[in-house]
UniProtKB/TrEMBL annotation:
Occurrences of domain RNase H type-1 (ranges): 2-115
Protein name: RNase H type-1 domain-containing protein
A UniProt-annotated Pfam family: RVT_3
Gene3D superfamilies in UniProt: Ribonuclease H-like superfamily/Ribonuclease H
Top-level taxon: Eukaryota
Record GO terms (molecular function): nucleic acid binding; RNA-DNA hybrid ribonuclease activity
InterPro entries: RNase_H-like, RNase_H-like_dom_plant, RNaseH-like_sf, RNaseH_domain, RNaseH_sf
Organism the protein comes from: Hordeum vulgare subsp. vulgare (Domesticated barley)
Length: 124
């Protein structure tokens, strides 16, 4: 099992929206390469601003492999279909800049994901 979370903030860091998704069946989340869960997290993180209609975003992840996959065409076997979906979302949004952030800088998303996991809960 696993969970993902996404938080949208404006350019000043003010909260706009968040989402969380409980994943009942997931591959290992602690592999050296990006796992399916990490790929799903980025896909769901891109889905939220696409649904809201944002056309210019900065997407952050604490997983460098995910950032690399979203900025190149090197995808992993198990995550390849999910990263293909990410590419479609990137094209739909228009302008997406990817940045790596430390896990400590991503506390809000981590707490939301933890809540989603513990309560087997998904929402926007």
């Amino acid at each position: 099992m696993g969970a993902t979370a996404a938080v949208i903030r404006d350019r000043h860091g003010n909260f706009i929206a968040a989402s969380c998704s409980f994943i009942q069946f997931a591959s290992e989340a602690s592999t050296v390469e990006a796992s399916t869960v990490e790929a799903m997290a980025m896909k769901r993180a891109l889905t939220l601003p696409a649904d809201v209609g944002f056309k210019n975003i900065i997407a952050e992840s604490d997983t460098t492999d995910v950032i690399s996959a979203c900025t190149s065409s090197m995808w992993w076997k198990e995550g390849a279909p999910i990263f293909a979906d990410c590419m479609d979302l990137i094209a739909f949004i228009g302008n997406v800049k990817f940045c790596h952030c430390l896990r400590e800088a991503n506390v809000a998303a981590d707490e939301i994901a933890k809540y989603s996991y513990e309560n087997k809960f998904s929402c926007i």
